[in-house]
Amino acid sequence: MTDAPLPQTPGLLARAIDSDIFYAFRRSKLTMVAAGIVLLLVLAAVLAPLIAMQNPFDPAQLDLMNSRISPLWTAEGQKPFLFGTDEQGRDVFSAILYGMRISLIVGILGVGLAAVLGIGLGLIAGYVGGAVDSLIMRIADVQLTFPAILIALLIDGVVKSLLGNHLDASTMLIVLVIAIGLSFWVQYARTVRGLVMVEKNKDYVAAAQLIGLPARVIMLRHVLPNTMGPILVIATINLALAIITEATLSFLGSGMPDTMPSLGTLIRIGNNYLFSGEWWVIAFPGIALASLILSINLVGDWLRDALNPKLQ
């Protein structure tokens, strides 16, 4: 008599396809379109060196004789400038691809820094409690009285006063990441603190304490995984806010320089030529930024509803 074959455990991909979240995703056509747009824009930014006709960050590839050429489909358009060129002879389409890459890098790293800082402080405040909790939450309450863009401008101004007003592009990118990270940590900390205060009173935490696990291990291995749903929603929505904040700082002249422009810098440059007839210099970067932000927000709104047990 032969033993019956054991049932095979479905793989990670199969479980993801059969999950309720993926089912809800397939039912929402708007979310599928938004996710497709986000994926398309991210891939375009990642593959910018392969797609773009020139590197707009390399002055050797720019020609002033090609400046202010209108889009290809207009009467004055020229090949291969699909969206036209700006005053430096920079191809607008190529500049959008590279600029979107800068905006995404700043946004993702800024959100990552805010998440690490906020989650860490939220875990400590919720698990330890007492005076430590009060101190962290009072700092968070004070920061909530100031808009995020104001805090980012303050941090940007302090760094420039210490390191000099003319920073190179790489240093400016780091400054923007730090400014955005320090502006958005509060929401993570408050959310994680509330969830930890609920989770730490459950039996599995008491069992972990009983067998002598240190508090750091309990917080990271046992409590933190049970708070990832709300954190994921906050990170998705904050990504759009971080990109907007970076674009605002760059538009105000406190962000990325003209030599390595983000989408916000391209909009600021195009704004100077809007009333002189070169509308394409500002229109296409603005459309790209709006499409990216709107699509991320739609995905974030869907994710918030999909992970809300009250709506299941």
From TrEMBL:
PROSITE patterns according to UniProt: ABC_TM1 (PS50928)
UniProt membrane topology term: Multi-pass membrane protein
Domain ABC transmembrane type-1: 100-300
Subcellular location: Cell membrane
UniProt keyword annotations, A-Z: Cell membrane, Membrane, Transmembrane, Transmembrane helix, Transport
Domain of life: Bacteria
Pfam families the UniProt entry points to: BPD_transp_1 (PF00528), OppC_N (PF12911)
SUPFAM superfamilies cross-referenced by the UniProt entry: MetI-like
Main location: membrane
Gene3D superfamilies the UniProt entry points to: MetI-like (1.10.3720.10)
Transmembrane segments: 30-52, 104-129, 135-155, 167-186, 206-224, 231-252, 279-300
UniProt family annotation: Belongs to the binding-protein-dependent transport system permease family.
Protein name (record): ABC transporter permease
